[in-house]
Specification:
Elements (H helix, E strand, L loop, with lengths): L11 H15 L3 H20 L8 E2 L32 E8 L3 E11 L2 E10 L2 H5 L2 H18 L31 E7 L3 E5 L2 E4 L16 H11 L4 E7 L1 H13 L4 E5 L3 E8 L10 H5 L2 E5 L16 H8 L8 H6 L1 H16 L14 H4 L6 H13 L10 E2 L4 E2 L9 H4 L13 H17 L9 H32 L16 E6 L1 H5 L3 H13 L1 H6 E5 L3 H15 L3
Helix pairs in contact: 2-15, 4-5, 6-19, 8-10, 10-12, 10-15, 12-14, 12-15, 14-15, 15-17
Bound molecules: beta-D-glucopyranose (BGC).
The site of beta-D-glucopyranose (BGC) has 17 residues, from helix 6 and strand 10.
Length: 569
């Protein structure tokens, strides 16, 4: 059993002052949330009216979303029928290639119609050398992975004939190297900012999430990939380009019968929503604008407020930014996403180890792991919060995935568990806790010893409590800020009013989400919902149908590839 109350070498008062100061820096008042959301709306409008703003508001040329009426019976108001490729869905097979962050995936997707699809996929690791080397090497690797997938994972023998549009055809069936055969159509999910000019054209604007491959910025990403396929004589044609948020939006719409927003809370963060073309004034007199209707806009909200005038920046955030591969860029993403939360937490923990005149954590000792840049994975924070949740008397029900893996519940969202609203006690008096809470802290202490590679003698229960509190502070702020982004889209699309008091017409407002944080981080969804409720009121929040767009990148790319082939691209 660990020593319970040792305030080794510190004084209660100085420790409390330091912890209180950190806590107040990470607090976000309701007013601050409203201010941030208001700024979001201003930046949305700016990005819709002019090019070259950090919040890029990229027109995707996806001019509608599936509505679930693939038998062609019903088209809900607000969506246009111009891309009714879904009405044409029989059984279509496409390849999808997904380059997003942690992994590269190659998928074969069969769109079966009637909200159904099947998907076979293989993940490939992208090394640091590829992320930061020459772009041609990275794209050659993508082509090699597609080649390996087609060779190693052949389709079932009873697949139909080699016609990309024939019922039951498989991608492999189409891999005939004779020039007369049709090339395998492939949709590319490329989860980085790209200025799209057509469904199958777009220039890389910048890299994010630790990528910095040379000679890609300013180049057409479809061309870079196609050149790599051609260099390897692969009979594959990249016909569509899609961001992962657009994929999430389309695939959630396909399975749920409509969707207004696709958003990612994973290694990075971003959202794509359905906007009226008339509001995308930067399209000027282009044919797309004249055509009117709706278009999916990729907000690239990870770059919100790069100037940090509105975001609640702390010294820990500034340190992270300064030491990052892309200083002064992707400010919002650095407060929110899985790539960075562990690093912010590590920065706080280090400051507590180094606290003067007395250390507050671990006897003033760090480990090689804690000293390492990005040494603390966000998954460890998740594990720590889960250890606390596990022994709770009344587990929170508002964070569960329900309905298989496809919907995230809003149950009891109006009654958050205390740990959602006050995750901020730093437990300076651990010996006053109940035996149950102490045993939960004991579990956290074990995780800390193991994952931080620390000497057990240096880790007290109080240290465990402080590490848990730190994780809660950082994750709670991230979830609240994520709520601002979602609330801004709700207001922009006239589903809500900032400040509340709006009764939506729609019974359900469907949102597709994906990413490790929203899927796995304990209470992230519930905390996000609490923030949305603060911003737009209970009426709207209660109608949010937030569901996992689990295979969004693959299915979304396939849906776009289908649209592209219908357009003869
Ligand atoms: C990228 C977005 C992407 C998001 C989620 C961000 O870093 O800029 O394009 O959608 O990550 O993967």
């Amino acid at each position: 059993m660990a020593p319970i109350s040792a305030l080794i070498g510190s004084t209660e008062d100085s420790a409390r002052q330091i912890l209180d100061a950190i806590e107040s820096q990470f607090q976000l008042s309701d007013d601050a949330l409203v201010r941030i959301t208001d700024q979001f709306l201003k930046d949305f409008r700016l990005g819709l009216s002019e090019y070259n703003h950090p919040m890029a508001m990229i027109p995707t040329f996806v001019t509608g979303v599936p509505n679930g009426s693939e038998t062609g019976i019903k088209v809900p108001a607000g969506y246009i029928a111009s891309i009714m490729f879904f009405a044409l869905l029989a059984l279509r097979t496409f390849l999808a290639l997904d380059l997003g962050g942690t992994n590269l995936r190659v998928c074969e997707v069969q769109l079966k119609g009637n909200h159904q699809f099947t998907l076979r996929q293989q993940k490939y690791r992208v090394s640091e050398a590829l992320k930061t080397g020459e772009a041609t090497a990275l794209f050659d690797y993508l082509a090699d992975s597609v080649d390996a997938f087609l060779t190693e994972f052949p389709s079932s023998p009873n697949s139909a004939p080699p016609d990309p549009f024939a019922t039951g055809s498989s991608a492999l069936d189409l891999l005939d190297t004779s020039d007369s055969s049709p090339a395998v159509p492939l949709g590319l999910t490329f989860s980085f900012p790209v200025e799209q000019t057509a469904l199958n054209r777009g220039k890389v604007l910048t890299w994010t999430k630790g990528f910095s491959a040379k000679n890609a910025i300013g180049h057409d990403v479809v061309q870079l990939l196609q050149d790599a396929f051609d260099r390897k004589h692969l009979h594959v044609r990249c016909v569509a380009l899609v961001n992962d948020t657009v994929g999430a939006l389309l695939s959630r719409a396909y399975t749920a019968g409509g969707c207004i927003l696709g958003s990612i809370f994973g290694t990075g963060t971003n959202g794509a929503y359905v906007e009226k073309v008339e509001n995308i004034t930067k399209l000027g007199d282009s044919p797309a604008r004249k055509h009117g209707g709706d278009m999916v806009v990729n907000t690239e909200w990870g770059a919100f407020n790069n100037t940090r005038t509105t975001l609640p920046t702390t010294p820990y955030d500034n340190k992270l930014d300064r030491e990052s591969i892309n200083p002064r860029l992707q400010a919002f993403e650095k407060f929110i996403s899985g790539m960075y939360l562990g690093e912010i937490t590590r920065n706080i923990i280090l400051s507590l180890i180094d606290a003067a005149p007395y250390p507050i954590l671990f006897n003033g000792r760090a480990s090689a792991l804690l000293n390492k840049h990005y040494g603390l994975d966000t998954a460890v924070m998740s594990e720590i919060e889960q250890a606390w949740e596990n022994g709770r008397d009344q587990p929170s029900s508002n964070d569960k995935l329900v309905n298989g893996s496809h919907a995230i519940s809003n149950a009891s969202a109006a009654h958050p568990h205390p740990s959602l609203s006050t995750p901020t006690r730093h437990f300076t008096e651990v010996d006053k806790l109940s035996p149950e809470d102490r045993s939960r802290l004991e579990r956290i202490r074990n995780i800390v010893i193991q994952r931080f590679a620390l000497d057990a003698a240096d880790v007290t229960l109080r240290d465990a409590a402080i590490v848990h509190w730190t994780s809660c502070l950082v994750a709670n702020r991230a979830a609240k800020l994520s709520g601002c982004a979602i609330a801004a889209v709700l207001v922009q699309t006239e589903k809500a009013k900032l400040g509340g008091g709006f009764v939506p017409k729609d019974e359900k407002i469907t949102i597709g989400v994906d990413g490790s944080l929203i899927e796995h981080y304990p209470n992230f969804n519930a905390r996000l919902r609490a923030s949305v409720r603060t911003l737009v009121g209970e009426e709207v929040e209660a109608r949010l149908n937030i569901g996992l767009a689990k295979d969004g990148s693959g299915v979304g790319a396939a849906l776009c590839a289908l649209q592209a082939t219908k357009q003869g691209l």
